[in-house]
Each structure stands twice: as structure tokens, then as C-alpha cells.
Amino acid sequence: MASRIQLIAALAIGLRGSSFFIGGSHDESWKNCRSFDPKEIITGCSAVIKSGEETDSKLAAAFNRRGLAYFHERDYDDSIADFNQALLKEPDYVAALTNRGLAYASKGAYDTAIKDYNRALELDPTFIDAFYDRGLSYESKRDHDRAIQDYDRALQFRPLDADCLVGRGTAYMRKGNYDRAFEDFDSAWKINPAYAVALNNRGLVYAHNGDYEHAIQEYDQTLRLHPDFRLAIGNRIIANARAGNYGRAATD
After folding, report:
1. pLDDT, tens digit (0-9, with 9 covering 90-100), for 54-66
2. How many helices (H) and strands (E) does the chain have?
3. pTM across the whole model
């Protein structure tokens, strides 16, 4: 799910207005609301919301961006509250529905999240993020087949999406189809050679097949790129132990 945090930077909002109020100019508040820093987003969007100068559409956008910033800060309750406000202003706001679903899923409320994704896809059947996020929720519910269906749909629109490929590969792996899973992890890695999860998961497939040498190579490469990736460290310990490399396992 962490990959969707970049939505904060992706939703651009134009500058509007020129009057002044506490916290600086209206333009400056919008500028902060559009920034890449969650704390600046919260400050700027809060000022915009309190200004009383915006249309419902612009207020919905500000609530949505502030909700994403709260999501980035793992404040899921305030995040959901802001998406609720965005949807009060714009009931058919597809991005806010999908983002609220993501926040609910982060709290473990997968069924509630899926309802939001369903509504978003009713409004826009081509909204790829809703397919991807719904796939994650189905996967969390261990409904691997529905998860795969959603990743398939997302990949029809965006075939080079490494996140969707890793998501689908993970679902295949949990279904026991390791060869199919490896294809997806390998494709994701070719798209993004620094994708830690894709490398780690390729290692898992090698380890499942008893090829610990290649599994360890995958974990080594993962950890060269991301030295603090604890999951890869744990997997390398297991692979080294099973390969009889007890010294390396002990070091890890």
C-alpha cells in the first residue's frame, strides 16, 4: 500500500485567489496544499478550507489532499474524516472514494474499503488505482482469485505497472502457482531493477524450489539496494541455514 502514498504529489491543484487571511496569502496556502511535504500540505489545505473563499469543488480537492497527507502520517481516522468531507462536497469524487478505501484498508476494514472501491469503479470503470487497491484488499482477505482478477484489469490499462505485477505475483504465489508468480516478479524487476519486493519475492520462489543459491543471490541484491529491508534479511537467514551456510545465517 505504501506505493500509493505518492498520490499526494500526483494530484495537482491550481492556484486560485489573491486575498489575505491568517497564515499568509491565499495563493501561498494553495501552494503549500500542493506541496510534496505532508506537514506543509496539512497546513496549507487547512488554511484553504478555513478561508471560506472556495467553491465546493475546490474544497473537496483540499480535503482530499489533506486526507492523503494524514494518510501519509498514518493518521487514518483524520484521513477518513477528510475524505468524508470531500465526498460531502463532491459525492461522485472517484479519487476520494478510492483514497478513503485505502485508509479503511489500512485500518483492517477490508469489506468497508471494498465498498468504496466498488462505488469508485461504478463511477469510473477505468480507474486503475481502484482496481489495484481492491486487489490488495481481496488479497488481505485471502481471496486470491478476485485479487488476480483486479490486477488483471488494472494491467489491461497499465501493462507496465510494476506494483500490479508484484501484487498479482503474490496472489499466484499464495495460491501455490510459483512459476506464474515468478513471471510476474521477474517482469516487475525488469521494469524497475531497484524494486526490493520484486527481488525478494523472486528469491522466495527460488527458495521454494530448493534453489537456495539463487535465492540467496536475490536476497543479497535486495539488501545491496535496501540494507534495512528486514524481510529480505529474515529470508536470507532461512535460505542460508537450509543451504548449510550456518555462519552466514548467524551473521544475519
Report:
1. 899 999 999 999 9
2. 15, 2
3. 0.84
CB of 68 within 8 A of CB of 37?
A: no
- Cell numbers at 20, concatenated: 489575505
DSSP states along 175-217: TT-HHHHHHHHHHHHHH-TT-HHHHHHHHHHHHHTT-HHHHHH
- The C-alpha atoms of residue 42 and residue 93 are separated, in whole angstroms, by 20
The set of long-range contacts for 241-245, using a CB threshold of 8 Å and a minimum separation of 24, is 242/207, 242/212, 243/212, 243/213, 243/216, 245/216
Residue with cell 459525492: 91
Q: Which secondary-structure segment (H or E) carries 21?
A: strand 20-21
Instruction: Count Cα neighbours of 86 within 13 Å in the Cβ-side half-sphere.
Output: 27
Between CA 67 and CA 79 the distance in angstroms is 4
Between CA 129 and CA 153 the distance in angstroms is: 11
Q: For residues 72 and 102, is the Cβ–Cβ distance under 8 A? A: no
Task: Encode pLDDT of 215-235 as tens digits.
Answer: 999 999 999 999 999 999 999
Residue 142 cell numbers, joined: 485471502
Domain residue spans in the chain? Answer: 1-91
